[in-house]
Amino acid sequence: xxxxxxxxxxxxxxxxxxxxCRKPRRAVRFPSMNILLxxxxxxxxxxxxxxxxxxxxxxDVHVVAPLTEQSGVAHSITFLSPLVVRKIFxxxxxxxxxxxxxxxxxxxxxxxxxxxxxxxxxxxxxNGGLNAGINVLYSGTVAAAIEGAFFGITSMAxxxxxxxxxxxxxxxxxxxxxxxQVLPRTxxxxxxxxxxxxxxxxxxxxIHVTPMGLARYGExxxxxxxxxxxxxxxxxxxxxPSTEDADTxxxxxxxxxxxxxxxxxxxxKRDLLGTMKDWRLEI
Length: 283
Ligand code: MN
What we know:
The chain has helices at residues 46-55, 103-114, 140-150, 168-182, 199-202, 249-254, 270-276; strands at residues 2-8, 17-19, 24-31, 33-38, 59-66, 85-88, 96-99, 121-128, 154-160, 191-196, 207-209, 218-225, 231-238, 258-263. The chain is α/β, with parallel strands linked by helices. Strand 8, helix 3 (140-150) and strand 9 (154-160) form a beta-alpha-beta unit.
Protein backbone atom coordinates (compact mmCIF):
# COMPACT_ATOMS: atom_id res chain seq x y z
CA UNK A 1 0.00 0.00 0.00
CA UNK A 2 1.27 3.45 -0.87
CA UNK A 3 0.38 6.69 0.77
CA UNK A 4 0.88 10.13 -0.70
CA UNK A 5 2.79 12.64 1.32
CA UNK A 6 4.02 16.12 0.68
CA UNK A 7 7.72 16.60 0.13
CA UNK A 8 8.88 20.01 1.25
CA UNK A 9 10.92 22.60 -0.57
CA UNK A 10 14.58 22.72 0.39
CA UNK A 11 15.80 25.76 2.25
CA UNK A 12 18.70 27.71 0.82
CA UNK A 13 19.13 30.22 3.63
CA UNK A 14 22.04 28.54 5.40
CA UNK A 15 24.78 26.22 4.29
CA UNK A 16 24.01 23.55 6.86
CA UNK A 17 20.26 24.07 6.90
CA UNK A 18 18.30 21.38 5.13
CA UNK A 19 14.93 23.07 5.08
CA UNK A 20 12.45 25.47 6.59
CA CYS A 21 9.88 23.05 5.33
CA ARG A 22 6.65 24.99 5.73
CA LYS A 23 5.39 24.94 2.15
CA PRO A 24 4.94 21.59 0.40
CA ARG A 25 6.27 21.58 -3.15
CA ARG A 26 5.43 18.23 -4.62
CA ALA A 27 3.70 15.04 -3.71
CA VAL A 28 5.70 11.80 -3.60
CA ARG A 29 4.63 8.20 -3.20
CA PHE A 30 5.57 6.84 0.18
CA PRO A 31 5.22 3.21 1.24
CA SER A 32 3.08 2.59 4.30
CA MET A 33 5.25 1.34 7.11
CA ASN A 34 5.05 -0.69 10.27
CA ILE A 35 6.33 1.57 13.02
CA LEU A 36 7.38 0.68 16.56
CA LEU A 37 6.86 3.68 18.83
CA UNK A 38 8.41 3.87 22.28
CA UNK A 39 9.83 6.45 24.68
CA UNK A 40 11.44 6.84 28.09
CA UNK A 41 8.82 9.13 29.66
CA UNK A 42 6.32 6.30 29.92
CA UNK A 43 3.35 4.92 28.03
CA UNK A 44 1.03 7.66 29.36
CA UNK A 45 3.33 10.57 28.43
CA UNK A 46 1.78 13.33 26.28
CA UNK A 47 4.76 13.34 23.92
CA UNK A 48 4.11 9.70 23.04
CA UNK A 49 0.42 10.33 22.38
CA UNK A 50 1.16 13.31 20.13
CA UNK A 51 3.74 11.40 18.12
CA UNK A 52 1.37 8.45 17.76
CA UNK A 53 -1.25 10.71 16.17
CA UNK A 54 1.20 11.99 13.56
CA UNK A 55 2.88 8.66 12.81
CA UNK A 56 -0.44 7.04 11.94
CA UNK A 57 -0.26 9.10 8.73
CA UNK A 58 2.87 7.11 7.79
CA UNK A 59 1.69 3.62 8.60
CA ASP A 60 0.60 1.22 11.32
CA VAL A 61 1.98 2.26 14.69
CA HIS A 62 2.62 -0.25 17.46
CA VAL A 63 3.22 1.28 20.89
CA VAL A 64 5.50 -0.56 23.33
CA ALA A 65 6.64 1.79 26.08
CA PRO A 66 7.73 1.71 29.73
CA LEU A 67 4.93 1.68 32.31
CA THR A 68 6.79 4.26 34.39
CA GLU A 69 9.20 7.04 33.50
CA GLN A 70 12.67 5.79 32.63
CA SER A 71 14.44 9.07 31.82
CA GLY A 72 18.21 8.87 32.24
CA VAL A 73 18.42 5.07 32.28
CA ALA A 74 20.45 5.11 29.04
CA HIS A 75 20.84 1.65 27.49
CA SER A 76 20.02 -0.43 30.56
CA ILE A 77 18.21 -3.72 30.11
CA THR A 78 16.35 -6.04 32.48
CA PHE A 79 17.74 -9.53 32.88
CA LEU A 80 17.77 -10.27 36.62
CA SER A 81 14.01 -9.92 37.03
CA PRO A 82 10.96 -10.77 34.92
CA LEU A 83 9.76 -8.34 32.28
CA VAL A 84 6.09 -7.84 33.02
CA VAL A 85 4.05 -6.55 30.07
CA ARG A 86 0.55 -5.12 30.35
CA LYS A 87 -1.98 -4.32 27.66
CA ILE A 88 -2.94 -0.67 27.92
CA PHE A 89 -6.38 -0.02 26.45
CA UNK A 90 -6.44 3.70 27.10
CA UNK A 91 -2.92 4.39 25.82
CA UNK A 92 -2.11 6.23 22.62
CA UNK A 93 -2.99 3.29 20.36
CA UNK A 94 -6.07 1.11 20.29
CA UNK A 95 -3.92 -1.34 22.17
CA UNK A 96 -0.58 -0.26 23.58
CA UNK A 97 1.88 -2.35 25.53
CA UNK A 98 3.24 -1.14 28.84
CA UNK A 99 6.49 -2.74 29.96
CA UNK A 100 7.88 -2.80 33.49
CA UNK A 101 11.33 -2.22 32.06
CA UNK A 102 13.62 0.16 30.21
CA UNK A 103 13.23 1.73 26.77
CA UNK A 104 15.74 -0.76 25.33
CA UNK A 105 13.68 -3.60 26.86
CA UNK A 106 10.61 -2.17 25.10
CA UNK A 107 12.26 -2.23 21.69
CA UNK A 108 13.51 -5.80 22.17
CA UNK A 109 10.11 -7.01 23.37
CA UNK A 110 8.38 -5.05 20.64
CA UNK A 111 10.46 -6.72 17.96
CA UNK A 112 10.30 -10.24 19.36
CA UNK A 113 6.86 -10.40 20.95
CA UNK A 114 4.49 -7.45 20.66
CA UNK A 115 4.62 -6.27 17.04
CA UNK A 116 2.64 -8.41 14.61
CA UNK A 117 5.30 -7.87 11.94
CA UNK A 118 8.91 -6.71 11.99
CA UNK A 119 8.87 -2.88 12.10
CA UNK A 120 10.34 -0.86 9.23
CA UNK A 121 10.98 2.07 11.56
CA UNK A 122 11.55 2.61 15.28
CA UNK A 123 10.66 6.03 16.69
CA UNK A 124 11.36 7.04 20.29
CA UNK A 125 9.74 10.09 21.89
CA UNK A 126 8.72 12.75 22.00
CA ASN A 127 10.89 13.21 25.06
CA GLY A 128 10.13 16.06 27.41
CA GLY A 129 13.60 17.64 27.36
CA LEU A 130 16.36 17.94 24.79
CA ASN A 131 18.76 15.06 24.24
CA ALA A 132 21.75 16.85 22.78
CA GLY A 133 25.49 16.87 23.43
CA ILE A 134 26.75 14.20 25.80
CA ASN A 135 23.25 13.87 27.24
CA VAL A 136 22.70 11.61 24.24
CA LEU A 137 24.68 9.00 26.15
CA TYR A 138 22.53 9.25 29.29
CA SER A 139 19.27 9.26 27.40
CA GLY A 140 16.77 6.42 27.52
CA THR A 141 15.00 8.01 24.56
CA VAL A 142 18.08 7.78 22.36
CA ALA A 143 18.97 4.33 23.71
CA ALA A 144 15.65 2.98 22.42
CA ALA A 145 16.48 4.29 18.96
CA ILE A 146 19.96 2.77 19.22
CA GLU A 147 18.37 -0.56 20.13
CA GLY A 148 16.32 -0.38 16.95
CA ALA A 149 19.49 0.32 14.99
CA PHE A 150 21.14 -2.73 16.62
CA PHE A 151 18.55 -4.76 14.74
CA GLY A 152 19.25 -3.03 11.44
CA ILE A 153 16.09 -0.90 11.53
CA THR A 154 16.15 2.80 10.73
CA SER A 155 15.41 4.58 14.00
CA MET A 156 14.87 8.14 15.18
CA ALA A 157 14.86 9.68 18.64
CA UNK A 158 12.73 12.82 18.99
CA UNK A 159 13.09 15.30 21.85
CA UNK A 160 11.46 18.66 22.64
CA UNK A 161 12.97 21.26 24.94
CA UNK A 162 11.51 20.92 28.42
CA UNK A 163 8.56 23.19 29.07
CA UNK A 164 5.85 22.76 31.68
CA UNK A 165 3.30 23.55 28.97
CA UNK A 166 5.13 21.85 26.10
CA UNK A 167 3.29 21.88 22.77
CA UNK A 168 3.84 18.25 21.85
CA UNK A 169 1.27 18.20 19.00
CA UNK A 170 3.20 20.88 17.07
CA UNK A 171 6.51 19.14 17.79
CA UNK A 172 5.01 15.88 16.54
CA UNK A 173 3.99 17.54 13.27
CA UNK A 174 7.59 18.73 12.86
CA UNK A 175 8.89 15.22 13.56
CA UNK A 176 6.59 13.77 10.90
CA UNK A 177 7.66 16.34 8.34
CA UNK A 178 11.31 15.54 9.07
CA UNK A 179 10.67 11.79 8.73
CA UNK A 180 8.82 12.33 5.44
CA GLN A 181 11.91 14.01 4.02
CA VAL A 182 14.61 11.92 5.67
CA LEU A 183 13.25 8.43 5.03
CA PRO A 184 13.20 8.64 1.20
CA ARG A 185 16.84 9.78 1.34
CA THR A 186 17.92 7.08 3.81
CA UNK A 187 20.01 4.34 2.28
CA UNK A 188 20.33 1.31 4.51
CA UNK A 189 19.35 1.40 8.17
CA UNK A 190 20.34 4.65 9.83
CA UNK A 191 20.09 6.15 13.30
CA UNK A 192 18.94 9.76 13.78
CA UNK A 193 18.60 12.11 16.73
CA UNK A 194 16.11 14.98 16.32
CA UNK A 195 15.92 17.86 18.82
CA UNK A 196 13.35 20.66 18.76
CA UNK A 197 13.78 23.87 20.77
CA UNK A 198 10.64 25.58 22.09
CA UNK A 199 11.15 28.74 20.03
CA UNK A 200 11.01 26.70 16.81
CA UNK A 201 7.42 25.66 17.51
CA UNK A 202 5.88 29.02 16.72
CA UNK A 203 8.55 31.24 15.22
CA UNK A 204 10.70 30.98 12.09
CA UNK A 205 11.90 27.43 11.73
CA UNK A 206 15.12 25.96 10.37
CA ILE A 207 16.47 22.45 10.66
CA HIS A 208 20.23 22.06 10.84
CA VAL A 209 22.16 18.85 10.34
CA THR A 210 24.85 18.97 13.02
CA PRO A 211 27.31 16.74 14.86
CA MET A 212 26.81 16.02 18.55
CA GLY A 213 28.45 18.60 20.81
CA LEU A 214 30.87 17.45 23.48
CA ALA A 215 30.63 20.33 25.97
CA ARG A 216 29.77 19.30 29.50
CA TYR A 217 26.57 20.62 30.97
CA GLY A 218 26.90 22.62 34.18
CA GLU A 219 26.47 19.88 36.75
CA UNK A 220 26.20 20.20 40.48
CA UNK A 221 24.63 18.55 43.47
CA UNK A 222 22.25 20.14 45.91
CA UNK A 223 23.00 18.84 49.41
CA UNK A 224 20.18 18.53 51.91
CA UNK A 225 19.28 16.58 55.03
CA UNK A 226 16.40 14.17 55.34
CA UNK A 227 14.10 14.19 58.43
CA UNK A 228 16.43 11.68 60.10
CA UNK A 229 19.45 13.96 59.74
CA UNK A 230 21.08 12.01 56.92
CA UNK A 231 22.75 13.91 54.10
CA UNK A 232 21.45 13.34 50.62
CA UNK A 233 22.23 14.85 47.25
CA UNK A 234 20.08 15.82 44.34
CA UNK A 235 21.85 15.89 40.96
CA UNK A 236 20.97 18.87 38.80
CA UNK A 237 22.23 20.36 35.56
CA UNK A 238 22.36 23.79 34.00
CA UNK A 239 22.44 24.37 30.25
CA UNK A 240 25.83 23.75 28.64
CA PRO A 241 28.08 26.81 28.39
CA SER A 242 27.93 28.78 25.16
CA THR A 243 30.52 27.56 22.73
CA GLU A 244 32.46 29.19 19.96
CA ASP A 245 32.09 26.03 17.90
CA ALA A 246 29.00 26.85 15.86
CA ASP A 247 28.71 23.44 14.25
CA THR A 248 27.21 21.36 17.05
CA UNK A 249 23.70 20.43 18.07
CA UNK A 250 24.13 22.44 21.29
CA UNK A 251 25.08 25.62 19.43
CA UNK A 252 22.31 25.28 16.84
CA UNK A 253 19.70 24.63 19.52
CA UNK A 254 20.90 27.68 21.45
CA UNK A 255 20.20 29.71 18.33
CA UNK A 256 16.68 28.30 18.16
CA UNK A 257 17.23 25.81 15.34
CA UNK A 258 15.90 22.28 15.14
CA UNK A 259 18.80 19.82 14.92
CA UNK A 260 19.14 16.45 13.25
CA UNK A 261 22.23 14.36 14.03
CA UNK A 262 23.12 11.03 12.45
CA UNK A 263 24.54 8.70 15.11
CA UNK A 264 26.43 5.42 15.18
CA UNK A 265 26.96 3.00 18.03
CA UNK A 266 30.36 1.60 17.06
CA UNK A 267 32.48 3.00 19.91
CA UNK A 268 35.78 1.76 18.53
CA LYS A 269 38.36 4.53 18.10
CA ARG A 270 39.58 3.56 14.66
CA ASP A 271 42.65 5.77 14.35
CA LEU A 272 44.04 4.66 17.72
CA LEU A 273 43.19 1.06 16.89
CA GLY A 274 45.49 1.30 13.87
CA THR A 275 48.31 2.70 16.00
CA MET A 276 47.81 0.15 18.76
CA LYS A 277 48.17 -2.73 16.35
CA ASP A 278 51.82 -1.67 16.02
CA TRP A 279 52.41 -1.71 19.78
CA ARG A 280 53.16 -5.45 19.76
CA LEU A 281 51.84 -5.94 23.27
CA GLU A 282 53.03 -9.07 25.06
CA ILE A 283 52.02 -10.85 28.25
MN1 MN B 1 12.59 11.32 29.27
